[in-house]
Amino acid sequence: MSTSRESLMILNASEEKLVLHAYDRQKHDGLSHVHIGGDMQLTLASSRGGRVSLLTGRRVTENDKMMPVAFCEAHLSTSVTKLSPGTRHSTMPTSSQVIYGTAMNGTVYRFLTLKEKEWRLLHLLQNLCIRDTVICPFTSKRKRQRNPAGYESLEFQPSQMHINGDILNRLSIRGPSYLMYMLVTEEFYSPSTPETGSPQAIYERFLELSKDLLGETSNPVEDVMMWLKRTLHVGF
Q: Rounded to an integer, what distance in angstroms lies between the CA atom of residue 7 and that of residue 19?
């Protein structure tokens, strides 16, 4: 049993009474939540202000029932008032759990859980998109120049773990040729700021991540784009 009115609390029913099992370390004006379960004991929770958090109860102990910091947080433009488990479509990655979220204005969101290899490849693609003037025309010039497409931090904040499917969908529409252009362009590279990533380093990183996820292929760019379209596709 669980509740999320002020913060997520998970209760166990034992001997005709409810016993606290775990609780979120932050208080939020909660709206909805759904248990995903699995080895990580995941729970997806939404709160007012557009926040959606992925929490785990794995490290909870008898002496410390406070949940760790959220794995991932998405900050959306509208608050999700209802979260519901969905059915995984055959085109999706086999590891994905599907959750649908409904907002008061009628917007429907689809949330997917990702394995590490999937996330790392999508994170690289998202960084490439954010600095591209066609796919993300409203990104500030400073953010484009400082976006570390060829660099991966050892630690990420929860908000940095969210992959924005709307951004990646704009890439999928433009196809493999545009992805290749983003991988090799020197528009954002400067030797004085190597953390932005040289075209060679970015392309090599892309090949490494695509091989880790999809295996050895004759055309990694096309195969990644096919996989991306299948992942983003909403089937009914």
A: 16
